[in-house]
Amino acid sequence: MVGLLLIGGLEGCQTAAPETASVISQPTTPIVKNITSFSDAQRCMDRLFAEYGKRDIVITSDGLPDHTAQIAAGTKDMMITALSRMSAQSRAFRFVDIEHGGAVDFIQNAYGENFAVPNYYIRGAITQVDRNVATDSKSAGFALPMLSLGYSEDQLLSVVTIDMNIGDLVKREIVPGMHTTNTITVVSAGSGADAEGIIGKASLFFEVSQDRNQGTHQSVRTLVDLGLIEVLGKLTKVPYWRCLELDSTEPTVIEQARSWYDSIPAEDRPGLIQTALGRAGYYKGPTDGRMSAALQDAINRYKARNDLIANGRIDFDLYYSLLVDKSVVVPSGEDLGSRTETASGSQPSAVKPIDGDDGIRLAVRQDGPAGKAYRVGDTLAFNVSVQRDAYVYCYYEFVDGDEYKVARIFPNRGQPTALIGGGRSVTIPSERAGFEIELAASGIDEQVACVAVEEPYARNAEPEVLREPDLTPLRSARRLYAVVDQHLQAERFGTDVKHIRWKVR
């Protein structure tokens, strides 16, 4: 008996043949595609962005640091992967990758002509990691003179929280309402059975365990996916709750929709409803942003069929019903991805600050029906208004031959004063301006940008573009984003920027 044990021991100690090393080293665990609970929701968001026309919104981030110093996870790359999944077909978001330290500081101070300037940045952190907040343990066992048996089952609960916000890059302000906080409970559970037997002078011990652990880092990825769906849905004003399968009666969903409705200027609501009811097949009239008998009839028919009071009014009930109707696309009224082109031919987003509740409140709207289609030979005019007194400068980017050029069109020789009084609206160009903007090239995107400041620039600190004549291609800036950047460098705080873009057919 002893001899057999010795032989078995010697055979177990034999050295493996060197030529088998490459075979032994091969992994036996199959590769698994990383799929979180929100992979389907990300594809759903991609479809929503496409339906709502969201495209080319340039965004960046430094990632989500762990302020608890307990989880070292690659959150920036997790975010990039999630953004890529949500933009696969829609091309809704373009992520600017920067590895020079602070992304926002780098963008503001060091970008060049070939650099895509983001509108927004994602800020957040892993703000809470509480390990083993609850422990549940069960065990049992018994012993005999020559044998002991036992069983145990344990469960540990840990909590991980991520906060995420959207920031306006130009103003370095966190956009109000663009935030989310999500917490996940990580379950670590294990069960084991062990038996110990004593035989003479020999002792044998074996343990069988099957551990189940959801993984803290995988939980972080899940929180990143969920957080991005929420904050990007809020930013773009698409009904993201559809993708999370939240019920339309959820108070948080209604509250979010209410905030969107309240943020839409009253004068813009008729055009928005005309577009939505037109897509739903209820309205056949022009999209001119005006209340009419045809629009009231469409509103009444839609409300009657959706259990609403048919009063012919545009109200929150009508807006919310359209918003949660999966067969209807309600336009947000905002073009977050309005673009200029870099010299290299890519199309980064122009800098576009978000309005706060106070300040200048610059508004730029085309003169005529919303969404008007322009053709070669048409003339362009637009209206500029401010909530409080401000000095306004407007620029037109156009194509001349194969080159983009920019000219200052306000103030101009016929409208020499940059100051616009609060509550007033100015048409550019006015009848006395002595010029008109005629669209001469087809198949291209053109745009106008206006910059407003509360105080006039100091003579020795004004942007170089203001030292050049009006209605003439600028020499110091050949692209619209470069003009805007000059103004921001001269006065970054208290500056409001708005632009409109159209396609010449």
Q: DSSP strand (E) fraction? A: 25-35%
Report mean pLDDT, rounded to a whole number. 75
- Tally of separate helices: 11
Tell me the structural class: alpha+beta
Write the layout of secondary structure elements.
Blueprint: H1 2-12, H2 21-24, H3 39-51, E1 57-61, H4 75-86, E2 93-95, H5 103-110, E3 120-144, E4 147-168, E5 173-199, E6 202-213, H6 216-236, H7 251-263, H8 269-279, H9 293-305, H10 316-324, E7 363-366, E8 379-380, E9 382-385, E10 390-400, E11 403-410, E12 419-420, E13 425-428, E14 437-438, E15 444-453, H11 480-490, E16 496-504
Parallel strand pairs: 1-2, 1-3
Antiparallel strand pairs: 3-4, 4-5, 5-6, 7-9, 8-14, 9-13, 10-11, 10-12, 10-15, 15-16
Describe what this molecule looks like in 3D:
- The chain is of the alpha+beta class and 505 residues long.
- Helix content is 25%, strand content 30%.
- Helix 3 (39-51) packs parallel to helix 6 (216-236), helix 4 (75-86) packs across helix 6 (216-236) and helix 7 packs across helix 10.
- The longest helix is centred in the middle third of the chain and has 21 residues, at 216-236.
- The protein is globular, with a radius of gyration of 31 Å.
